[in-house]
Amino acid sequence: MIRPIATTREMTGMPTGRLAVWWLIASEIVIFGGVLGSYLMHRIGHKEWAAASEHTNTWAGAFNTLVLLTSSLSAVLAHNAALRKDGKRAAKLLWATIGGGGIFLVVKSIEWTTEIQHGYTITANNFWSFYYTAAGLHGLHVIAGMIVMMFVAADAAKGKELQRVENAGLYWHFVDLVWIFLFPLLYIAK
Amino acid sequence: MSAAAHAEHDHAHGHAHHDEGFIQKYLWSTDHKMIAMQYLFTGIAMALVGGFTVYAFRMQLAFPGMPVPGYGRVTATDYNALVTTHGSVMVFWVAMPVLIAALGNYLIPLMIGCDDMVFPRLNRLSYQLFLLSAIVLMASFYVPGGAFGGAWTSYPPLSAKAEYNLTGLGSSMWLFAVALEFAAFLLGGINFITTVMNSRAPGMKMFDVPIVVWMIIIASILFMASVGPLIAGAVMLMFDQQLGTGFFDPAKGGDPVLWQHLFWFFGHPEVYVVLLPAMGIVAEIITVFSRKKLFAYKTVLYTAIGTGVLSFFVWAHHQFIAGIDPRMANVFSVTTLLISIPVAEMVFVYIGTLYGGSIRLTTPMLWALAFIAEFLLGGVTGIFLGASGADIYFHDTYFVIAHFHYTFFPIAFIGSFAAITYWFPKMFGRMMSETWGKVHFWGTIIPFNLIFIPLFLLGARGDHRRIYDYRHFPDLMKAGMQDLRILATLALLVLLAFQVVFLVNLFHSIFRGEKAAANPWNANTLEWQAPSPPPHGNFPQGLPNVYRGPYEYSHPDRAEDYWPQTEPEAAKS
């Protein structure tokens, strides 16, 4: 397929790809807003959920927060390398970010396995239902971000489509930011 | 800019040669016009499904217990599934694809003067997801238990538990189809918004964009900003159905009213998501056929934005009888009455456009005028329902059904017929028959009113909706109430029969209609500067530049009564 002229125009001054990622993020904000809004409404009405949330593994959550923040740092460095047209370095840094996403998912699986073994399943009570739903939805976004970055990194290594490094990074920061909201609300709040 | 213009010139040659096979051309195309046609014809096919379901259940209401020709006996479970499917299909699989997706796809690149959407492959993917969602919905009729029967609003606990709704798999398939469809329109919306923001023709400033494009964009933003919570809610409801969680189950500490909030937080803006494009279509048509500049372009735009913003603060008027706090009901009554102001203003502006114009009563113009008149009735009756006091009486009666259809039928059908008859020459390069168009128009408008005026009367007399067989309710069979039901059903049969006229006219004109010129209506907007039908790449003579707004009709300095947006100032003579 030939790229249409429409794609090359920039009337707003912002490249089309980046503009679209911002709109994508806008639509994702309302999706997570819906989950978190519903959770907060329930949480305020159910003081007893504080007892349930004590069984979450705050240290694992904190470690994962650190991992995600670090992976966002490498995404920024990748963008920086892409700006210098250093596709190879950008690709390497993107792979570091993907690795961060991988560690996040591994820690998450261990956490969930332990919790499920202790009987805290998705149907245990509504706190755990929200816990698995919100974190699960976030986890799907982590996986999606990793897959996207694999494609972007493969192109970037050949010096192609370097503008996509920034777009993938934008999305990754958003995924990171969602976790920044989820972590205190699900793990810390008493 | 000059470098970009040069690049554009190089690209333009890329579109010259296209020899594609059938699949490549009709099913796997990335051309926005072909994707628009896919949405349009899928929408028409789904409208037939929606029409058939309403035929079956209206027959049951008018002639309870009698076998319906072409369907057989309608059981209570069938009735629920038919009503649910009618509602869901008409809103999500007819109005949305035709008004937003088909028209947005067809018109946006042509009207802003570029060759395609900014993401053509994403566009193709959106359609494929949409098609898949339609297939999933239709397939749910054939699973054990049959199609979902918990109404298009899918309130839990009825929708959440298989032991209540008896359609365990059907309800989850319904939910999955709806979620898939939302994903398709989210992707489509991102494409629309980005295209209009970034890819307008050189010279096309914000206020040179035709109103219909603005309306589709505002609608896409509304959709995007409102649908998120319902997507989240759909995931939660799916878990309730399939995993046994208790998000909406009071027995497990959940809250069924939460679903109503999530649904209507989307559901009310959704009304404006489909209304605004229809309003935009009407704006295009009434300016062309009254040969007059659109009265108060910016007012239309600002009222549309105002409507959009307000539409996020009215949702709980659907829940006045759901046990929400009466103080909340006051607030939502006020916002609901407020939102009628910008909508009424838009209608006044359109009447202002018509005033003093040289009106030509072509078929599209008839549809546009009918839209204004009929939608006005729907809007005015909405005020009764927005006031929480009156709503408590009216809410579970046919008054709501009649009000809803007086807004939605004009939007989904009158608006779509206006658009199809107006842009048909561009889409297919031929003219539709005016005579048969007018026969279809009167054959639709008259029975439409004969269906829903009786329902208003029934509703005012307290006729409860959601009833399968009125013979079990002697209070609702009193003096003439059944006669009104029969009248509505007979009018529906007439209306459905006249749609055959439309379909024959449509398909006959596609293949046998009179050849259309590039600009048969002498209109200003850019799509009429392209050939009819436009080839892949849209503007073979080179992408246009824009010199003025879209509504310069009957300009005093010009011999012709129209002034295309592409014509440079120097060509004035």
Oligomer: heterodimer
Compute the number of structural domains of chain B.
1
In round numbers, the mean pLDDT of chain B is: 92
The top-level CATH class of chain B is Mainly Alpha
Low-pLDDT runs of 5+ residues of chain A are: none
Mind summarizing the main beta sheet of chain A? none
User: Uncertain runs of chain B with pLDDT below 50, 5 residues or more?
Assistant: 1-17
SSE order of chain B: HHHHHHHHHHHHHHHH
Strand content of chain B: under 5%
CATH topology of chain B: Cytochrome C Oxidase, Chain A
Strand coverage percent of chain A: under 5%
Structural summary, described in words:
The complex is a heterodimer of chains A (190) and B (573). By secondary structure, chain A is an all-alpha fold. Chain A has a single domain, classed as Four Helix Bundle (Hemerythrin (Met), subunit A). Chain A has 7 helices and no strands. In chain A, helix 2 packs antiparallel against helix 6 and helix 5 runs antiparallel to helix 6. The longest helix of chain A has 32 residues. Chain A starts with a helix and ends with a helix. Chain B has one domain: Cytochrome C Oxidase, Chain A (Up-down Bundle). Chain B is 65% helix and 0% strand. Chain B has 16 helices and no strands. The relative contact order of chain B is 0.10. The chains are: A mainly alpha (190), B mainly alpha (573).
